[in-house]
């Protein structure tokens, strides 16, 4: 009996298939689409990411054996969501999206995007000045009516700084990449307790994505960040999401070797230690947050 070797997925090393048993309805909750041929990047962009198109991502989705995915507008596009919405239209009902905005769309525009599959907006918060409290509160109030969430790419120290605001938002919150808890400090960082409490209150979700980012130990085990992921699962498994972060813009920009996405997926078994937890994180949690049938 011969086995077909998967094609090499762009921006991903290796050609192995998952050792993890992938449940039906599994979802990659965090990836990007870059298509500068059709959709020009914002003028201030310096990353100059090459195309990472829907066709390329479908290769990874097939290699994972996943049924669902969530497209996140990358910073290269600023608040221009045309590429993300175009990708969403091509990927259909198995996909959802999280967009970036600089002003709050009208209620009619939000409802139109909801029908297309948008379920949240994302703020990148690198420093205190990026955290526009008034605008965030305005957005949260409007999104709560739609059942959308706010996704924060935010440094762990800033989670602590803006704790009272995060605790008071009326919509759901999602923290990208383990809340960027520092690998050397991990769950001892006070942001861990803040995120854990918000999850316990059913107010927040945490993505245990991009275990390679800022790992001190590094490949292939990333055991410092994997330990953080495991602790987050233990804190509230029903509030944990998994994402690939393909095509790994942080690694491209910093000229590092691309991760093996399937090996990264297999590390989920060290964070969610039985099949029920894996299904909870890959299927049930994203189905609830993103509104998959």
From TrEMBL:
One of its GO terms (molecular function) is hydrolase activity. Gene3D superfamilies: Metal-dependent hydrolases. Residues 27-292 form the Amidohydrolase-related domain. Pfam families: Amidohydro_2. It comes from the Bacteria. Keywords: Hydrolase. PANTHER family: BARREL METAL-DEPENDENT HYDROLASE, PUTATIVE (AFU_ORTHOLOGUE AFUA_1G16240)-RELATED. This is 2-pyrone-4,6-dicarboxylate hydrolase.
């Amino acid at each position: 009996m011969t086995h077909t070797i998967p094609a090499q997925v762009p921006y991903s090393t290796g050609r192995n298939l998952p050792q993890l048993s992938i449940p039906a309805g599994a979802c990659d909750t965090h990836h990007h689409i870059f298509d500068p041929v059709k959709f020009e990047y914002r003028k201030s962009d310096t990353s100059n990411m090459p195309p990472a198109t829907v066709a390329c991502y479908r290769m990874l989705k097939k290699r994972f054996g996943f049924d669902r995915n969530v497209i996140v507008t990358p910073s290269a596009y600023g608040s221009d969501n045309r590429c993300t919405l175009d990708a969403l239209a091509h990927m259909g009902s198995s996909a959802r999206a999280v967009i970036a905005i600089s002003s709050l769309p009208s209620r009619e525009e939000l409802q139109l995007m909801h029908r297309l599959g948008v379920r949240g907006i994302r703020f990148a918060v690198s420093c205190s000045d990026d955290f526009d409290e008034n605008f965030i509160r305005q957005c949260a109030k409007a999104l709560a009516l739609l059942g959308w969430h706010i996704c924060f790419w935010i440094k762990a120290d800033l989670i602590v700084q803006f704790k009272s605001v995060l605790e008071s938002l009326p919509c759901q919150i999602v923290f990208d990449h383990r809340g960027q808890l520092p690998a050397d400090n991990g769950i001892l960082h006070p942001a861990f307790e803040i995120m854990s409490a918000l999850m316990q209150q059913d107010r927040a979700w945490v993505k245990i994505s991009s275990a390679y980012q800022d790992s001190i130990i590094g490949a292939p085990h990333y055991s410092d960040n994997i330990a953080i992921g495991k602790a987050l699962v233990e804190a509230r498994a029903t509030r944990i999401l998994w994402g690939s972060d393909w095509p790994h813009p942080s690694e491209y920009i910093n000229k590092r070797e691309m991760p093996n996405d399937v090996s990264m997926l297999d590390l989920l078994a060290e964070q969610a230690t039985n099949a029920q937890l894996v299904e909870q994180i890959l299927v049930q949690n994203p189905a609830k947050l993103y509104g998959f049938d």
